[in-house]
């Protein structure tokens, strides 16, 4: 897959995830800032993790888990 296509997929996933966070009552600016600083975002941007194949629901669960615990449990989604 080309870098351009991967970037487009990543953009769509992140946009959808942020929209879901805002729909759940979070401030848009804070949601964006916090997500881009998260470990999940770092992993999502790495093709090798394969997280870009995940649904928005799965990514949202992972992100909420990271915020609660400070860690990401990828065991259940591999």
Structure report:
This protein is mainly α. It is 64% helix and 0% strand. It has four helices and no strands. Helix 1 (3-23) packs across helix 2.
Properties at a glance:
single chain; 78 residues; mainly alpha; 4 helices
How many helices in DSSP terms? 4
Describe the global form: globular
Q: Which value, in Å, is the CA radius of gyration?
A: 12 Å
- Helix content range of the residues, please? 55-70%
What string, H for helix and E for strand, traces the elements in order? HHHH
Report the end-to-end length measured between terminal Cα atoms: 21 Å
Could you give a quick summary of the protein structure above?
The chain is mainly alpha-helical and 78 residues long. It is built from 4 helices and no strands.
Write the layout of secondary structure elements.
Layout: H1 3-23, H2 28-36, H3 39-44, H4 56-69
Helix pairs in contact: 1-2, 1-4
